[in-house]
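hi!! sorry for the late reply, been swamped w classes. u asked for the two structures so here they r. pasted raw, havent cleaned anything up. first the sequence of the first protein and right below it the tokens
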Amino acid sequence: MFLEPVSEKCFTETTRPGKNTFGETISIYRKEDDFPDLENVQLVLFGIKEERGAIDNRGCGDGIDYVRKAFYQLFNHWDDLKIADLGDIKTGNEISDTYYAVNQVLTELMKRHIVPIILGASQDMTYPMYQVYEPTGRLVNIAAIDPLFDIGNDNEQLNSHSYLSHIILHQPNFLFNFTNIGYQSYYVDNESIELMKQLLFDTYRLGNLKQNIELTEPLIRNANILSIDMAAIRAADAPGVKNASPNGFNGEEACRMTRYAGLSFKLSSIGFFEYNPHYDINSRTANLIAEMIWYFIDGFSNRQDDIPTLESTDFTRYNVQIGEGQENLIFLCHKISGKWWMDMSFMKADDMRFERHHFIPCSKEDYDQAMRNELPDKWWQFYQKLM
């Protein structure tokens, strides 16, 4: 058994009037001999108290119960969702033991088609989240809300600042795309920016996204894994991070992005990392993470399978000619959700692993750009990946 029960100190009476808080309505692993029944469970939470992979953020393994206290006091509006809290991963003698335990728990949840919400630890836990997909034979997309790229230096051991390079170098490699959401240029050198371009990864500066936070929706919709570094949230809204910055997404924008994640039929795991209660102020960051989880659940409750296939009839189809004699760009818009996609199924790759990546999430802005006779960057980037 890789999990231990939730600490009793997480259970406090709510200070808000009302009934049906999460602490009252979800299945919680409170006693050793009373593990929740996972039959029909759709969402689970579990914590990781590991911090040996943290760079300059000791104490990030101590924040789980603060988040739980805040989350348990929020009200549950979804009677039709079955949610469980599985407690915490037991910390291994070596950090590799903890990685293995995380991998095994996530593997079992994937078999049951349960979406995990991971709390605590440092962002190197994205690596075991990625490894879970290896036996499936599927290519994986990762999105990270992060002010940095976390590539690390040559031959650097796995940690919170180098996990991405370990994912890239992992063999067999089954990473199709990586998307950084909200990097801050003054924290990233030109060499790293150029490397991300060479790898055909998507990188989006904080300032560009804050002008229109809705642009993050198709980026998140394309991900199987969403890894959130709480340092991406500005210090005024999330002071509980050792490396908090005066700039970043605000709390409302953070909640909107996690709701987008919940809505995505493709996304199958999400992690909230780097929260450090020793730097928090009046549990402000713990409360924000709890609200981000609430919005993720809100999005999840409204999920619908709006991913196109070659046989789909639920989409309006638009053919756009770019220049003379060029290939038509085909856009699809779901008739109910209004979400946009680019159809790249004309790329007849022999490798069946690419089949699920022939429909690329996009925004109406991409369609409008094509209508101006301009080739969207996103189309060209994925064209290169599928060649």
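now the second protein. again sequence first, tokens right under
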Amino acid sequence: MPEITLVGTGGMMPLKYRWLTSCYIEHNGSAVLIDCGEGTQIALAQAECKISRINVLLITHTHADHVSGLPGFLLSLGNSERTEPLDIYVPYGKTKIIKNLMCICDRLDFDVRIHELSTKDESSFIAETIDPMLEVRSLPLRHSCDCLGYSLTFRRKQVFLPDEAKRLDVPLEKWKILHRGESVLLDDGRTITPDMVTQNSRRPIKITYVTDTLPFAAISEFAYGSQLFICEGMYGDRDKKKSMNHKGHMLMQDACRLAQNAQAEQLWLTHYSPAEFYPENYSKELKKLFENIVISKDGQKTEIKD
């Protein structure tokens, strides 16, 4: 089951008590990292996240607080004796920026493969280096530059029914083949299909991550049904709303409303302003808008089991 760590929760610049917002999602020994601001490799170490397990890096946008840590991250990854390729996903047209950031990383022992995602329409791909059943979707957001939100859906194998397999006299060595969705031909000429020995009773696990955007209805649709919705809450002071509208950001209250409309099971706030020293002060007000909210801190962790 995926384990999620909110590595950092800050926006704009790192502080001595708050790293820049980044998210580490580990599953079956491999991990996805979302964003890579200044000092991310240090924040990963402090949060006890294994940098060597990261196979996919999702970049929301190319503002400095989300990408300026890339060179240090790549060099640290290289020092972990990595040889497997790293896949980096970026908004369309931003490959040049990533390559420019990499200009001081000329001795990596692994390939960096850069993929561009549409900034006009939703996109999706299968993150096979993490799990062949992991679908990653991206949503164009509304910020001062091209920016993407990400949703990760871990689809799970159907439940295998060993009693049915025994009843049908399926040899034990054929069970794994059926469980991964392939039919088998038995020695007596019978074909056993997966649906004969499985049942679909395991719902997917969905995690959605959205930051640096104005709030709009499509975000709730994108995040609909998420077990965990991680969303920007730059300020809790409602007087900041006009300023947030101008800069392409949202308030904590906006995040609550989006989570409520998305019927998310839990909301984690992130991307606090450096001037937002005590986001927990808004907890009582925010719980009235969305009860299952977490005023996240660096290193926030959870494992989604259902």
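hope this helps!! also noticed smth abt the second:
The mean pLDDT is 93.
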